[in-house]
Amino acid sequence: MRANSALRLASRALALYPGDLLNTTTNQTVKDYLTVCQNAYYIVIDFFEQATNAFAAADYKSVLKYEQQTPRAAASCVTIFQTPPTPPNPLNERNRQMRILISMAVLSAFDLVNGP
């Protein structure tokens, strides 16, 4: 149970970052884009939590199913900053970290289901 709690706390902290930026920016376009990012992060967190519950139940196919849905959700935070007008993306580094985390999770789930 401790691992689940730690994952939930870490995930929530990750999603708070766009919210912190939302509170400090005055540019409405950036605020709108950050709202999209914050929602995307919460979707990723939800999938991670569902995957964690499936893992605890030894339902590895469901783990893979949930993890495979995370890249699309996270990508919306990248693509929104490519929509004109295009302000600089203050989440570039955080998005890079998220892509790494998601890639590791998907590959791990794939290995659980299919073997290394």
TrEMBL record:
GO terms for molecular function: enzyme inhibitor activity. Keywords: Disulfide bond, Signal. It comes from the Eukaryota. The keyword Cytoplasm does not apply. InterPro entries: Invertase/methylesterase_inhib, PCW_Enzyme_Inhibitor, Pectinesterase_inhib_dom. Belongs to the PMEI family. This is Pectinesterase inhibitor domain-containing protein.
